[in-house]
Amino acid sequence: MVNPWLNMWRSEFGYAASELRELAVSQISIDEGVDSEFRELAKLLDQVANLQLYLGSGPELENVTKAAGDRAGDMFEKYVDGAPLDEESLRFVTNEIVKTSRQLRDTGEGRRYEYGFCNWCRR
Q1: For residues 77-96, b (16+ Cβ closer than 10 Å) or e, as one string?
Q2: Which residue has the higher pLDDT, 113 or 83?
Q3: 14 contacts: CB under 8 Å, gap ≥ 6
Q4: Cα angle vertex 28, ends 22, 32, to 5°?
Q5: Coil, helix or strand for 49?
Q6: Can you tell me the mean pLDDT for 34-39?
Q7: What pLDDT shows up at residue 4?
Q8: Rounded mean pLDDT of 46-65?
Q9: In the prediction, which pLDDT does 110 show?
Q10: Radius of gyration (C-alpha) of the chain in whole angstroms
């Protein structure tokens, strides 16, 4: 079964990569020393967004997606994990997780992730 959300997600990966490249050249990113990490993550996200899909490319897509997710998770733990969230932000994040979980559930592939967001996201 073809994942009906795949094209949307790949587009979002590409958009996120573009935004990270913009952040990487900002003075605050350079001052904080995170510019190279932003560029590295952008490169990984671009690999997901631009991977040539063909019959049987699932394992390759899973590998590049896992690499991007692992790197994003590492950066999250390093820079964000300890920061407190206000109630509005917490509600927003919770709603996004629920929405994405429903999208995954609606796909045959998503059944593998029924008890978590996905296999490459450690949250």
Answers
A1: eeeeeeeeeeeeeeeeeeee
A2: 83
A3: 45, 46, 49, 50
A4: 115
A5: helix
A6: 96
A7: 74
A8: 91
A9: 46
A10: 16
The pLDDT value given to residue 82? 81
**Nearest-5° angle of CA 32, CA 35, CA 40?**
140
Q: Map out the domains of the chain as residue ranges.
A: 6-113
Task: Spell out the residues 6+ positions from residue 112 whose beta carbon is closer than 8 angstroms to its own.
Answer: 119
Report whether 112 contacts 119 (CB < 8 A).
Answer: yes
What proportions of the chain, in percent to the nearest 5, are helix, strand and coil? Answer: 70, 0, 30
Closest of 120, 117, 84, 121 to residue 103, by C-alpha: 117
Reply yes or no on whether the pLDDT at 6 is more than 90. no
Per the CB < 8 A criterion, the answer to whether 97 and 91 are in contact is no
> Hey, what's the torsion of the CAs at 12, 122, 34, 89, to 10 degrees?
70
Residue 116 DSSP class: S
For residue 107, pLDDT beyond 80: no
pLDDT at 18: 96
